[in-house]
Amino acid sequence: MAEPRMIEISPVTRVEGHGKVTIHLDEENRVEEARLHIVEFRGFERFIRGRLMWEVPVIVQRLCGICPVSHHLAAAKAMDMIAGVDQLTPTAEKMRRLMHYGQVMQSHVLHFFHLAAPDLLFGFGAPAEKRNIFEVIKEKPELGKRAVLMRKYGQEIIEATAGKKIHGTGAIPGGINRNLTIERRDHFLGSIDMMIEWALDAVKLARDYTQEHEDLVAEFGSFPSNYLSLVRESDGALDLYHGNLRALSSTGDQIFDQIPYTRYHELIVEDVRSWSYMKFPFITELGPEAGWYRVGPLARMNTASFIDTPLANKAHAVLKAETGGVPNNSTLANHWARMIEVLHCVEKIRDLLNDPDLQGTDLIAEGERREEGIGVIEAPRGNLIHHYKVDEHDQVTYCNLIVSTTHNNEGMNRAVKDVAVKHLSGQAQITEGMLNHVEVAIRAYDPCLSCATHALGQMPLQVELFDAEGCMVDSRTQSI
Amino acid sequence: MSGTKKETGFSFTIDGVEITAYAGQTIMEAADEAGVYIPRLCDHQGLRHQGSCRVCTVKAGGRSVAACTQPAAPGQAVENETKHLNKMRRDLVEMLFHEGNHLCPICEASGNCELQAMAYRLDMTETTRFPYLEPCRALDASHPDIALDTNRCISCGRCIRASQDVDGKGIFGYVGRGIHRRVAVNGESLAETDAEVSDHAISKDVCPVGCIIRKRVGFVTPIGEREFDNGLIGHEIEEKRK
After folding, report:
1. Of the partner residues A55, A57, A168, the one whose CB lies closest to the CB of residue B223
2. Cβ count within 10 A of residue A314
3. Are the C-beta atoms of A335 and A344 separated by less than 8 Å?
4. Residues B77 and B95 placed together within one structural domain of the fold
């Protein structure tokens, strides 16, 4: 009989931020416990206090270098509310939407092609030196080229709307500080058809992978859960920028629907556990055991009634048909959902580029000042909540942020345990390839651990192996 | 402004370039007119010269002098753009960054900030040599239209001179001595002063950094349209020679 062990995967690779996985094995090498730990602490919610309200969208976006636009816009929406602006000018709202669609597009493309594709193309257990974007470019040069150019397109959209590709200043309380020039519009229109064609191919690639690996997708980190996202106010359509909250159970039953996001604190409670800096939110009425839920691309495909762009809607219908219309619980199906959202974003970008409102000059609205503001947006990784209070001197007195990766905390931990049990239990020797299976499950959520702990820097993963008495007996560390 | 033009000027040189000056003009005033830029932070057009930041230090007759206060002299050979002087200027600017809390990425003055622009002009790109002092200074947002974030103050005194000499108010003044010297307001807080957003001292050009903030302006001016987005600080003076 073997000694009980603990494996540590640290750092987790090809995700954003710092995290590690610990796996406890008993005397017969069976997995007893597996957890994803987020090991960084940042404190944005504290040090934003005292700053001036119009600085907030620029400061809090520094939470992240991958999806700063999401934080920028969520904070700006909260500041709109504080500025008393309930309706932006058409130019402001459309410029913000254009910025957001560019952001979701580039982030999803980065994740699918650069971070996840090596696993999907070469296999989860492929040699570590094979599992990177450079090998993808070497073996699939056309795919690699598209990965780079699609991301560039999204980044340039962000630059045109926010002033910089990363950490711009476009959204301000009550509006936007620029419109889109005719020159930039024509530049983007010049390659929009190619982007749509490439997005369609990406959907096909992800769909084919999911369908061709039906058994793997069905069992790999798959389990029922609740799902939560914004949906469009009028009709429940997918809306990444604005809407009301909808939550469904794993069987598609409604938990709540069309609730204004300003009431999020009535619907969601954040639980704290001693071994992670990341909180564990759950739906209040269901409690911590049954109320945990998932957010993100697949959650949005599950909650949205339909998609209001024709090509993405068609792709959405195919995905929904896979599970007969009830929520899809397969963690790996997130990749397919993510590419459908890329297609949706590109279609939205095309429609916006043809809208003359983007050249409007009415950029800022004004209203009667309020003390509290809540901004919610569907970030690439899922629902993102920003909540602030501001005093009469324009200084922030309170800040609460619930980011997508935090919403997914319980789901990622369950996926880690599920994969650990299925792929590591009973194994006398734990190989690097086996450990990568655990990382693949985490990567499917495209977690941003930097955002979730509000942490700075790269996000390497560490796996630790503990014995039955809690002593670490083995660890593997992967650097990126 | 101390200079008064006379009918007949005289010549001196800056880095070998012949400059015409008039009696009473400082080296900097004559240089500005001739299209030769001498870096400066505490000096500002329309305010009396102070000569405290020393960024405008030039060599005249073998001595280091502040170009903003030193009168131009006939036949003088002034050194301005030398490796040694620019290193000294860069050191001064670097120390200003270390002395306060200058977080350019989140500062609403970024792109309009003379300290940031001077750092770019002086090529302040190497790893820093000085420890950050990270002072703990409160933000005074008590006034309905103006905020004062002294984390970003470089003690140039431009607001003091503008308030005293132009606005006739004396809202700002120095308190403390040596390294502890700070700009303060003549009241418990800004709200207790008679500061108004229309004061010259509060105007966007007087404070060279993001210390004096006109509320609710923030990031209304987009990136690309800010003062130093399209040229190094001083380019408007240098363009006179082109």
Report:
1. A168
2. 14
3. no
4. no
| Residue B201, domain member (yes or no) | yes
pLDDT of residue A455: 31
Instruction: Please list every residue in chain A whose beta carbon sits closer than 8 Å to the beta carbon of residue B138.
Output: 50
Q: What is the CATH number of the domain that holds B46?
A: 3.10.20.740
Check whether residue B200 and residue B96 sit in a common domain: yes
Domain final position from B30, B50, B81: B81
Structure tokens at B34: 């001739």
Of the listed ranges A251-265, A427-441, B38-52, B85-99, the one predicted with least confidence = A427-441
Asked whether residue B171 falls in the same domain as residue B99, the answer is: yes
Backbone angles phi, psi at A76, to 5 degrees: -65, -40
Q: Is residue B228 part of a domain?
A: no
**Cα dihedral B3, B5, B8, B9 sign:** positive
Domain count across chain B? 2
The domain of B106 spans 88-214
Assign residue B94 the CATH number of its domain.
Answer: 3.30.70.20
**A interface residues, B as partner, C-beta within 8 Å:** 50-52, 54-55, 57-59, 62, 162-164, 167-170, 172-173, 177-178, 364, 393-395
- Which residue do the tokens 């039955």 mark? A468
Query: Residue-wise over A410-426: b if at least 16 C-beta within 10 A, else e?
Result: bbbbbbbbbbbeebbbe
Distance from C-alpha of A450 to C-alpha of A447, rounded to nearest angstrom: 9
Nearest to A378 by CA among A355, A409, A344, A351: A344
Task: Output the CA–CA distances (angstroms, integers) from residue A42 to A75, A141, A321, A479, in the order listed.
Answer: 18, 39, 42, 22
Q: Would residue A185 be called left, alpha or beta, if left means φ above 0 and alpha means ψ between -120 and 50 degrees?
A: alpha
Domain coordinates in residue numbering, chain A: 5-40+408-475, 223-329
Q: Which of A462, A168, A289, A394 shows the shortest CA–CA distance to B221?
A: A168
Q: What is the DSSP letter of A448?
A: B
- Give the residue among B75, B83, B77 at the shortest CA–CA distance from B60: B77
B92 and B210 housed in the same domain: yes
Count contacts between A and B (CB, < 8 Å). Answer: 55
Q: Both B103 and B201 in a single domain? A: yes
Q: Is the residue at B210 inside a domain?
A: yes
Shared-domain flag, residues B206 and B174: yes
Inspect the interface and report whether the beta carbons of B108 and A58 lie closer than 8 Å: yes
**Chain CA centroid to CA B68, Å:** 11
Residue by residue, pLDDT tens for chain A (480 residues) are: 567 777 787 777 656 666 788 888 888 888 888 888 776 666 888 889 999 999 999 999 988 888 899 999 999 999 999 999 999 999 999 999 999 999 999 999 998 998 888 888 888 888 878 888 888 889 999 999 999 999 999 999 999 999 999 999 999 999 999 999 999 999 999 999 999 999 999 999 999 999 999 998 888 888 899 999 999 999 999 999 999 999 999 999 999 999 999 999 999 998 888 777 778 899 999 999 999 999 999 999 999 999 999 999 999 999 999 999 899 999 899 999 999 999 999 999 999 999 999 999 999 999 999 999 999 999 999 999 999 999 999 999 999 988 888 898 888 888 888 888 888 888 777 787 878 888 888 888 877 665 554 433 334 556 666 666 666 666 666 543
For residues B194 and B175, state if they share a domain. Answer: yes
Read off the pTM: 0.90
- Indicate whether B148 and B183 sit together in one domain: yes
Is B234 among the domain residues? no
Instruction: Tally Cβ neighbours within 10 Å of residue A273.
Output: 14
Across the range B212-240, mean pLDDT stands at 94
Most distant CA pair in chain B, distance: 53
Q: Are strands A372-379 and A268-271 parallel, antiparallel or unpaired?
A: unpaired
Mutant choice from B197, B223, B225 vs A, greatest count of A C-beta within 10 A: B223
